[in-house]
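Annex B.
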Amino acid sequence: MRARGLEMASKDCVKVAVRVRPFNKRERDAGSRCIISMTSNNISIQDPRNPQNSRAFTFDYTYWSHSGFSRNKDGLFVPEETGGRYADQASVFLDLGQGILDNALQGYNATLLAYGQTGSGKSYSMVGYGPNKGLIPTLCERLFQSIRSMQDSRQCQVFFSMLEIYNEQVVDLLSKTSRSVSGLRVREDQQRGFYVEGLRRVPCDSAVQVEQLMDQGTRTRTTAATHMNANSSRSHMLIIIQLKQIFSKECITKQSNIYLVDLAGSERQRSSGSEADRLKEGTAINLSLTTLGNVISALADMTLGKKVVHIPYRDSVLTKLLQSALGGNSRTVMIATLSPADICYEESLSTLRYAERAKRIQNKAVVNESPTERLVKELKAENAKLLLRLSRMGQEGRKADDETKELRRLLTHNELQIRAIQTLWEQHLQEALKDWETQYATITQERRMMQMHPYIMNINEDAQLSGVVKLFIQEGEWDIGLADNSPRSLCIRGLGIQEKHAVFSNQQRRVSIAPVSGSKVIVNGVQISKRIELQHLDRLVLGSNSTYLFIGFPSERSGEDWSRYDYDYFQSELAAAEGFHIQSLCDNQGHRPHQPDPSLLAVFYDYIKLMPMVTEANQMSTELKKGVEFKLEIKNLAMSDSKGHDLEKDIAVRVTSVESKQVWMWSKAKFVNRKFLMEEVYQQQVVGGEGADRAPLPRDRDPFWDPLETLHLGSAHLWLQSLAFRIPLEEQVEVVGPEGTEEAILQAQLVPCSPTGLPLGEDDILIDPSELLGKRLDFQLVLDQCCGLRWVKEARNRGVQIGFQVFDCPQPLYTPAVWHNVNPLLDHRVQFSALRTSQELLNYLQSNALVLELWGLQEGCSELVSCMDGVKMTQEDSIIIDKISASEHLAAESGVSDLSSSLRALHQDLEQLRNANAALKKENSALREQLNSARNGVENNRGRQERRGSLRPSCDAEFAKALKVFYHSMTSVRGQLQRLRRHKPSEEADLLGLRLFVDEHTYLLKDFSEQLEQCVTTLKQDVAAIVRRKREKSGIWS
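Kinesin-like protein 6: predicted structure tokens.
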């Protein structure tokens, strides 16, 4: 499965490794299924929706870290069995990290890229957790071990830099000064290539110092993310380790750069359609990752021999800095991390495809010579020439004092330059050590405070950034908010945080929090309006989404595991407080809680992920005075297709203008894109300060606005089974919204009719639907009225249309628009015709419903128009359906001779068989009559048979009437069943309310049972009466 690290140093192609992590807590709770399998260097992924569909890939290294491991006494995750397949951190470093280190020591540039969706294990592989150290800290430890072992033969200098790229801005995470609004600039030099101007380079002489600098950078990253309202999963982190090796005896210097890159989350948006946003989706926040994909694709095509005109390195900051790593002077490794869960199929497949392209890239690495060492050699060479000239002048006895002075001055200047270059490293190292001592003192002080006082610590979406910020609540009262002008204030930043947001009180070893008027404070998922006492491990949300975990006094800490209170826990708690949790979602859909549908789980976690983003969007709308509200909804939660099967669920965001009541529905992908655009506007107009651009945006560039469109409000089902018996149906159907709300009541009819549109009578009702096969069927859909339109009740300037699509009609049809009326008359009639009813149409009628879609109109949006392209009509202006059978009918009429003759021959054979069968039946009947009429005679028996034959038409009509009554009765039963499914207790119901709900539910259930029993009993009685009358009249009972 793995090759040795030294083998990698002899090749210049990009090496790609893939690592599969274990299930996380939410995936285990959801009962997720593993869809990844691995053998040797091959990896395959299975489509959970189609198990027969799987994709296979081959990579340089593959690591199975999903199962087969245990934790030893030191806290390390190791294989359960010696030689097991589980790949621990040590084995990953042996293959990847050791090769990177060997390349750097040989003088090559080396790069390690980590790629994958958020939460797939990138940070664990790169940084690690606890004793399970990742590639970066282990590489640093081994680097300094190598330096110590080689200090007799060379002098080594190590510089450490750490930066973040967010929204195309470069942030120095080790900078001592406050960050600039525009970030650091990336410049280009002919020798150095692209570099970050002003990036701090810190000298290091130990792995402990590097670890401290990483902690400092992480703290800066967390604070910056909070201040800038940035999502850390959308940022790239780069660590640059510069290694300089000076070989004094050989007068050789090798200099190499090690780039360790943790790329932003690569997740793709699940979208229900091909919706395109009018505002470009490739915003600056996505630009780097998109451009990186384009660069990798171009380089991969070049390797395959395709003509590549341009490689877009310059299109983003990230690709500029990684130019040497991709197709340039570097030995490069990419590690792609995967989630094995079925709900992450799309993201995992995308990651594998990305990694497959990357492995085709070839680099041209060379050993680097330091420009500084070259300068020293040049200065020494020049000094040697000057000394030679001085000695010659002394031997010749010249007295040219001016020339001698000038030579000695140049000699002194060069020696000073050499000394300055050689002592620069020591000076930088001393300065770095002083900073390190200051940082160490700060950390020591923080640890001491943790053992003395309660505090709150930040919880971030990125687990690596959680617990970095700690705010201590000492004795007395402490104001928390934006203001930091008081010695008893705790300063925090973030959306929705007020100058004075809340007050902490620590009195008599009891800590409480009181929100200031107008500020938002949530404790354990519930917003508070007055002072409340805090308990150890309480969860706090301040403002829009500043999440903190309260840690009580040391005596209250009993060594419990705090790690379960992660970012997902906070958001799940907030969702549960709103009445949205996985169990209720499964209950609504009829799934058992321990076996939830994977599609429901995906929707649930999408909802949890988008909740904080919606809260932040609402806060930005308030501060920017946009007057727009955002609300999460679950699309198709209570909706089904024409067969009654549940539709695929998805997340949508309802956008409402508070003033005009205009409404938009945005897909998840569109909202995420707009959210990042909103952040850019917010940064420019609010965070930017006094000099920021505060001019109002043009409407076409405003991410809070969109042109108005029709909205899908809900659907109703009109079951078609009665048409198979040619029984008319008149029904009041309920239009149900995406989340199960009643949007309207629709009065509709299905009327079997003649080709000219005349309704059929009771004599035309069929007992056996198969009698329709091969015959013409005409029926009319009549939409009479729509009652109780909730959409129009909310705003009278709205309208509606009804859309529907019957069987194989190529396009949906729409009723004319009706406006400004809560109970509009539709009076819409459409006739459909099947020229020869096929078995497919008959099956459709018996098992499907006609889905009637309710569409909402707003002033300014275009009405929906029926597209008649591809629709065929009869002479009576009836729409032809079942076109396959119709075309067969037309082909038969046109006289295709071979088929016609064959069909006639078959019909003749069939007719002969029917005649023979009829003759046999007749003979059997005659024999039976002779046996039964031995006493009464043949004549009386014939008369009885004639009377029995005359009864058949009337019996069939009675059967049809009984069926019609039964179908009408079942319509009300079906409505009662729908009411039962939607009948739920209120989330705020107390014990008395729950008792009332149980009583109401019992009554509804009893009513449903009685209606169902009455329908079935009535049908049984009617059938029994018909049979009894038939037998009495036929003379069987005397």
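DSSP finds 22 helices and 42 strands in the chain. Residues 1-11, 269-274, 892-899, 941-952 have pLDDT under 50 and may be disordered. Further annotation is deferred to the next reporting cycle.
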